[in-house]
Design brief:
Helix content is about 25%, strand content about 20%. It is α/β, with parallel strands linked by helices and about 150 residues long. The protein has a single domain, classed as Rossmann fold (3-Layer(aba) Sandwich), CATH 3.40.50. The protein has a 6-stranded mixed beta sheet, sandwiched between helices. Helix 3 packs across helix 4.
């Protein structure tokens, strides 16, 4: 299984939190990462998105079918994310478009060398892979918009 954790891009400040929209910089960030991801994703990739506006706008840049999942909204736990993704049982790849600090907690939980309190930067991707024969999940790659 491949688990791709994608933090939403830069969003405006405001209230209510769930309605915050991407800034122009955020739209650019999301498009850069979506373009990069699109050429690398397996055909059977599922995209699960937090119900907030900023995560839906970020994920929409991929131009894939999206599934909005309430349990991965802000305040979700690492276990909520892993359950939604059916980690590590699902065949293929799952993208979770979500929030900090939860995504950092998921990376820490799966990749033991990653310290607690990891800050996943806006619009960055952390790609984790675990094959049947792997004892531990492997960090396949990390990508930030500034790297493109």
């Amino acid at each position: 299984m491949e688990l791709i954790l994608w933090r939403h891009a830069e969003a405006e400040e405001g209230f209510p939190d769930s309605a915050r929209q991407l800034t122009e910089k955020g739209k650019t960030q999301a498009k850069q990462i979506a373009d990069w991801l699109r050429t690398r994703l397996p055909e059977n990739t599922e995209v699960l998105v937090s119900p907030t506006s900023r995560t839906r706008q970020t994920a929409a840049m991929l131009e894939f079918d999206l599934k909005v999942i309430d349990p991965i909204a802000p305040g979700a736990t690492a276990q909520d994310i892993l359950s939604a993704a059916d980690w590590p049982n699902k065949q293929g790849a799952v993208i979770i478009v979500g929030h900090q600090p939860t995504l950092g907690e998921v990376v820490h939980h799966l990749i033991r060398d990653v310290p607690a309190g990891l800050k996943v930067k806006k619009s960055s991707v952390w790609w984790i892979k675990k094959d049947e024969n792997d004892i531990e999940p492997l960090l396949k790659m990390v990508m930030y918009p500034d790297m493109l």
